[in-house]
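Issue 218. Parser rejects a valid record. Input:
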Amino acid sequence: MQTNVTLKQLRCFTEAYHLRSLAEAANALGITQSAASRRLGDLEQALGVSLFERVGRRLVPEPSADLLLRYAEAAMLQLNTGLDLVSASQGNASPTLAIGALPTVASTLVPAAVLRLRAKAPRFIVRIETGAGDQLLPRLRAGHLDVVIGRMAPVSALDGLEFEPLYADRLAFVVRAGHPLLSEPIEIAQLATHPMILPPANAVIRPAVEAHLMARGIGLPDKRIETTDASVAEPLLLASDAIWAISRGVAVPAVRAGRLAFLPLDTADTVGPIGLTTRADDAGRTELALLRDAMPEARGPD
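Output the parser choked on:
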C-alpha cells in the first residue's frame, strides 16, 4: 500500500496521541493549531482511517491509533539514530545528549551533573529541555530526548521505558524567610489559612500533594496559583505570606541562600524516587553511561 505519509504528520500524530489535545500537540511542535489539525487530517486521509474521536477539546485514540503509534515511534527513532550516525561518520560531528529535566532537578542535580559530564567529555553537546513529565516522556519515546531526569512517573506511563533511581525526594512546604508560621509551633491545618501555590495537575508530584493534604482533612483551595517554576513562585512568596507545596529539591537553592525556608512539617509519606528515565533499548549507550558516572557526586537536596 502506497501512501503520502510525511514525517511531519507522524510527529504531529505521536504528540497528539500522548498529549490527547490538538492544541497541546501544536504547542509542543511549535506550530499553529490549524497546521496541526491539517497534518492530522491529511494523515487520516492518507491512511483511510480515523485515528481519534474528538470529544470536546480532547482526543480519544481509536484502535487504529494504538496500532500506528507503536510503528510510528519505532520508525522515527530509527530515523533519528540513522541521521546521528551519518553526521558522526563525517568525523567532525560532536556527540549530542538531549536531556529532559523536571523542575525537581532542573536547578540542582542537572546543572551539577552536566558540569561533571562536560569535564569528562568536553566534546559533548548537551541540550536541556525543562517541562512536566507528560510533556517530556512523549518526546523521549519519539527520540527527541535521550533521557528524562526527575521524579519517577506513574508505572502506567513507563511502558517501554526504564527508570533508574538515584535518590529520594519528598514534598516540602516553602515560605519566605521571616514568614509568621516560622516563629511559632505549626500544625498542618494552619496551611488552609494562607494563600497556596501548588504544582499543576500534570506535575508528577501533584498526586502526592493532593493525597498528603486530603489525608489531613485539607482540600485543595479554590483560589490558588499553580506552578512548579521557581522563577515564578519565588517572587510570589517573597511578596506575600503564601505557602508553596513543591518537591524539596526545587526550593533548595533559595533556602540555602536564605531567601526561602521550609516549614517544619512531616512529609515522610510523600517520599518518592528521583532518577533517570530512558528508552528500554538505549541502556548501553555510551553517552548515557557517562551521564550516570557524573551523577554520584551530583546528588539531590539535603
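Fixed in the parser; the record now loads. The chain has a mean pLDDT of 86.
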